[in-house]
Amino acid sequence: MIFLVITFVCLLTIISIPEFIKSLTPNEHLETKKIKGGGIEYRLTQGNFHIGNDIPEGYYDVTSDGDNYFNGTELSDGDHFLGLRLYDSNIAQVTGKGTIKLKKSAFSPVSKEGDSYEIHHSGFYTVGKQIQAGEYIITYETRNDEVLKEDPWFQIISDDLQKIIGGDSFGDANQFEVDLKENTWLELNQSGFSTNKNVSFFLRPVK
């Protein structure tokens, strides 16, 4: 009986060794660079990346050098997706011939013109920190009247990112009235599951 237990433990150890070694092996598709002022930028080329091993769990701002897909979202050269949460033990995937750059999200306040917010990137925005809570008319505009392949859309999500509170797609309607509560997220997507630097969103207070 003791022999069987020892044999079983040894087998488990042998089976787990390759995974352990793999976890210690640097990912050849990943480079890191120190950012001026502190922090690290992660540079990813085509491949799979283990969150918690290759890249720490957390919120990241994503930038694409070249045309790429990152976790199913299409990003053109120079496009951004802000405030993306990467969860421990999940896999992040890059496809394309360019490079995806990740750096910890800054969550800087959204720029305003008068009393209106103007947002130029897809991503997740915190209500109360980046955008003041309140009732808004949300709409979008395209530069040079570009015809989009897919409609822009938005979602309002709970603080823990687990519950969708509201949202819609800009199909026939070009604006919606939303009530943004403190400690929620506003997710904005410029064209389906693609970023598009020619699309901007606007949040104007309800008068």
Q: What does it look like?
A:
- The chain has one helix spanning 2-24, and strands at 30-34, 40-44, 47-50, 58-65, 68-70, 73-75, 80-86, 91-96, 99-104, 112-113, 116-119, 122-126, 134-142, 153-157, 164-169, 175-180, 185-189, 199-205.
- The protein is mainly beta and 207 residues long.
- The chain folds into two domains: 30-104, Jelly Rolls; 112-205, Jelly Rolls.
- A nine-stranded mixed β-sheet has the order 1-2-9-4-7-12-17-14-15, with no helix packed on it. A five-stranded antiparallel β-sheet has the order 10-11-18-13-16, with no helix packed on it. A four-stranded antiparallel β-sheet has the order 3-8-5-6, with no helix packed on it.
- A hairpin with a 5-residue loop joins β1 and β2.
- Mean pLDDT is 88; it is low at 1-24.
Q: In terms of topology, how is this protein built?
A:
Layout: H1 2-24, E1 30-34, E2 40-44, E3 47-50, E4 58-65, E5 68-70, E6 73-75, E7 80-86, E8 91-96, E9 99-104, E10 112-113, E11 116-119, E12 122-126, E13 134-142, E14 153-157, E15 164-169, E16 175-180, E17 185-189, E18 199-205
Parallel strand pairs: 7-12
Antiparallel strand pairs: 1-2, 2-9, 3-8, 4-7, 4-9, 5-6, 5-8, 10-11, 11-18, 12-17, 13-16, 13-18, 14-15, 14-17
What is the approximate shape?
Answer: globular
Neighbour order of strands in the largest sheet: 1-2-9-4-7-12-17-14-15
Strand-and-helix sequence, N→C?
Answer: HEEEEEEEEEEEEEEEEEE
How many domains comprise the coordinates? 2
Overall average residue pLDDT: 88
pLDDT < 50 stretches: 1-24
Q: Strand count, sense and closure of the main sheet? A: 9 strands, mixed
- Radius of gyration, taken over Cα atoms and rounded to an integer in Å: 21 Å
Class of the largest domain in CATH?
Answer: Mainly Beta
How widely separated are the two ends? Answer: 79 Å
The count of β-strands is 18
- Measured by DSSP, the beta-strand proportion falls in over 45%
CATH architecture term of the largest domain:
Sandwich
Q: How helix-rich are the residues, as a percent range?
A: 10-25%
- Given helix and strand content, the structural type is mainly beta
The tally of helices reads: 1
Query: Might you state the CATH topology name of the largest domain?
Result: Jelly Rolls
